[in-house]
Amino acid sequence: MVADSLVGGRPPVPSAADPLMADLIRTCGRLGQFAGLSLPALAIVLELQHAISLGQMLVMLLASVCCFWIGRLLEAYAPS
């Protein structure tokens, strides 16, 4: 059953006939991008208030880059 859903080793992509799923994927991608852009500002504010260390701030910045990148991929691969 699982092998039938995989075509050429790639997971199935929602069809363009399902606009609700495409909108949901696109919205999740945009939210990921927004989170990726918001986290660095939050990390700077928290570091200035001495609530987190410099190392924790760098981890938050790395997480924001990953979040933005995953959001961009989701938005780009959403069926149109």
Please describe the topology of this protein.
Elements: H1 2-5, H2 19-48, H3 54-77
Structural descriptors:
single chain; 80 residues; mainly alpha; 3 helices; 0% strand
How would a crystallographer describe the biggest sheet? none
- Apparent shape: elongated
Strand count = 0
Low-confidence stretches: none
Helix content: over 70%
What is the end-to-end distance? 27 Å
Mean pLDDT: 86
Strand content: under 5%
Overall structural domain count: 1
Multimerization status: single chain
Number of helices: 3
Compact overview of the structure:
By secondary structure, the protein is mainly α. The protein has three helices and no strands.
Word description of this protein:
The chain has helices at 2-5, 19-48, 54-77. By secondary structure, it is mainly α. It has one domain. It is built from 3 helices and no strands. The two termini are 27 Å apart. Helices cover 72% and strands 0% of the residues.
